[in-house]
């Protein structure tokens, strides 16, 4: 499937996996709506992509864990770009610790960003995709949504929930020619992983954001008749 002249909205687009997916889609001629909390990151990427690829790039600074902010960002980007064909729910946060030691506010914040942010964004774009009887939604989940690990209760809970959300919405909208997929990478060498205190090991052998971007691109290029629930990639770096 050609991605040329389609419109994609990407959350958490200022750095890491979101930025890598934005750059991969730009090379395909996809127009982009980029959402992140840090305006300067978005402005730098916007300038780079427009100059290098001649595509339309709109930006919106927003905290997608706030429903009103997520909806406003979507409406602003859709108005500027003329529609939306693809949604990449990438924005996420992480913090690890034993359940009894973690501040409940930290636990709740992870759920609010990773799960509720994905829900708010999906809810905002779906009516538009249903009206046009076409669309692709990719949720960046994790192997943490497939198996739990000690100190990961909040992050595991958020990603397990994203997996369940993905499967339910997939069943709801496949009749509308909308594909909903979860990607489940293992640990990726990003600022999020480093700041969360993960022992990522040998960076030269670590999975990189570009690896996840390539998987997202391959998924989007599948014929629209092909529906998949999850697609996962694993690092070659032994943990």
Description:
The structure is a single chain. Helix content is 46%, strand content 16%. The chain has helices at residues 16-27, 39-53, 67-81, 104-132, 153-173, 191-195, 209-220; strands spanning 7-11, 31-36, 57-61, 86-89, 135-140, 178-185, 230-233. A 7-stranded parallel β-sheet has the order 3-2-1-4-5-6-7, sandwiched between helices. Helix 1 crosses helix 7 (209-220), helix 3 runs parallel beside helix 4 and helix 4 packs parallel to helix 5. It is globular and about 50 Å long. The mean pLDDT is 92.
Backbone structural class: alpha/beta
Number of strands: 7
- Give the helix tally: 7
- Average pLDDT metric: 92
Cα(first) to Cα(last) distance is: 36 Å
Rg result: 17 Å
Shape summary:
globular
How are the elements arranged and paired?
Layout: E1 7-11, H1 16-27, E2 31-36, H2 39-53, E3 57-61, H3 67-81, E4 86-89, H4 104-132, E5 135-140, H5 153-173, E6 178-185, H6 191-195, H7 209-220, E7 230-233
Parallel strand pairs: 1-2, 1-4, 2-3, 4-5, 5-6, 6-7
Helix pairs in contact: 1-7, 3-4, 4-5
Structure, briefly:
This protein has 239 residues and is an alpha/beta fold. The protein contains seven helices and seven strands; from the N terminus they run βαβαβαβαβαβααβ.
Overview features:
239 residues, alpha/beta, seven-stranded parallel sheet, 7 helices, 46% helix, 16% strand
């Amino acid at each position: 499937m050609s991605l040329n002249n389609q419109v994609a909205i990407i959350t958490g687009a200022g750095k890491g996996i979101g930025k890598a997916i934005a750059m991969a889609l730009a090379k395909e001629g996809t127009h982009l709506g980029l959402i992140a909390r840090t305006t300067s990151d978005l402005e730098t990427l916007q300038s780079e992509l427009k100059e290098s690829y001649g595509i339309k790039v709109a930006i919106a600074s927003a905290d997608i864990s706030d429903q009103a902010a997520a909806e406003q960002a979507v409406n602003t980007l859709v108005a500027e770009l003329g529609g939306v064909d693809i949604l990449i729910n990438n924005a996420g946060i992480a913090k690890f610790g034993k359940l009894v030691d973690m501040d409940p506010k930290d636990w709740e914040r992870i759920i609010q960003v990773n799960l509720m942010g994905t829900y708010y964004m999906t809810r905002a774009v779906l009516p538009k995709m249903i009206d046009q009887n076409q669309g692709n939604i990719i949720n960046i989940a994790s192997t943490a949504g497939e198996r739990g690990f000690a100190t990961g209760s909040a992050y595991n809970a958020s990603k397990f929930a994203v997996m369940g959300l993905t499967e339910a919405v997939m069943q709801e909208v496949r009749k509308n020619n909308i594909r909903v997929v979860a990607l489940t990478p293992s640990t990726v060498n990003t600022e999020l992983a480093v700041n969360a205190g993960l022992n990522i090991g040998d960076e030269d052998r670590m999975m990189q954001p570009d690896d996840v971007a390539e998987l997202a691109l391959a998924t989007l290029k599948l014929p629209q008749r092909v529906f998949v629930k999850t697609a996962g990639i694993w690092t070659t770096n032994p943990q």
